[in-house]
Structures are given as C-alpha cells and as structure tokens.
Amino acid sequence: MTTLPVGYFQINLQFTGSAAPAGAEVVFGSKNDALLDVATVANLIQTNWDTNLKSKTNSLLTLDRIRVKAGPQATGVFIERAVGVAGTQVSAPVSPQVSMMLVKNSLTGGRHGRGRTFWPGLPEAHVDPSGLIGSVDIAAYNTAFAAFLAQLNTDQLPMVILHNDGAVAPTIVTSWQVSSKVATQRDRLRRR
Questions:
Q1: Separation in Å, CA 68 to CA 14, 19, 46
Q2: What's the per-residue H, E or C state across 117-176?
Q3: Nearest 5 degrees, angle CA 184-CA 65-CA 161?
Q4: Mean pLDDT of all residues in the chain?
Q5: Which domain holds residue 110?
Q6: What CA–CA distance (Å, rounded) separates 154 from 34?
Q7: Is position 110 within any domain?
Q8: What pLDDT does 187 receive?
Q9: How far apart are the C-alpha atoms of 149 and 105, rounded to whole Å?
Q10: How deeply is 92 buried, as exposed, middle or buried, from its count of CB atoms within 10 A (0-12, 13-18, 19+)?
Q11: Is 154 inside any structural domain?
Q12: Does residue 153 sit within a domain?
C-alpha cells in the first residue's frame, strides 16, 4: 500500500461505462505546492481533464467521479466530486482488461524513480494484431498527456510517484509517456 505524506494528494479518476463494465480507475499522486484544499484540487483536475484528456478518452467511458485525498493517509481529508462526463473519442475500444500503459519518468534512478499508469478504453483501431500502438497515435497521446502534466505543474500540483516505503519521499514525475505495447492488468475484470 502506498503511503501518502502530509503535503501530497492521491488523485483517483474513476471511470464507468461499457468500455469498463466493472469500472476503471487512474490513480496518481500530486504535491501540494500551492497549499490548496481538496475541493479546489478536484476542480483543477476536472478542468485539466476536460481540456487535455477528454478528447483522448473513449466516448464509451464516463469520468464518473474524481476523488482527492490529502495526506496523511490515516487522517487527511478527502472529497469525491461527481463529474458524469463522457470522453469524446469515438471508436470501438479494446476489451476491458487491455489498456494503454503510461510510464512515469523522473530524475531519480532505480525503482523509486519510475512508475506506471494504466489508461482504459484504448481504441481497437489504434492497436495492431501484435499489440503495438501506431506511432502516429502514440505521438498524439503523448502530446495530450504532456499537456496534462504541464498543467499540473502550472497549477502547482506536480505529479509524483507515491511509494510503499514511508521513509522514501514521493518522487517528482518529469514525463508521462505512452508505452508502444498495450498492457493488461491482473484482476482488471473483477467478479461481482
């Protein structure tokens, strides 16, 4: 379980829709450089998603809620903001257990200096039979995700990699890039 220190947020983008019948979540950490409250952060994240990632989110996915949790893990406040806005990328998605993988890079070497994010609803048309995403599509996604990351920095909420070891401070993410090969995640199709 990741630790969430004082001065940091854990942000969950919670998706619903037929492209993710059991739901899907994109989770990342942010540093609270501007000493913002959770409601303000939720508003900024929604605006950033609307501006930079809504067009790269499948229309069969709805950003249902944004959850912002402030550190410390045990006692920090949180908010769950209802959104209910669908993506605008119109294309048949890959199966729900397949996703696009984004790699979080930092200036720190080793295991603490990298992370990953799984993004649901990748269009089937963007993936070839060997599971590779086309280079033109990768470039377009990388542009959108870089813009999202840049806006986090502008909002003084730089993305961080949260760690399981409470003795290791969260690591600032310097780039967020799409992997050329699609990814699967165990238990993505949960039993009900």
A1: 11, 24, 11
A2: EEECCCEHHHECCCCEECHHHHHHHHHHHHHHHHHHHHCCCCEEECCCCCCCCCEECCEE
A3: 55
A4: 93
A5: 8-184
A6: 10
A7: yes
A8: 52
A9: 12
A10: exposed
A11: yes
A12: yes
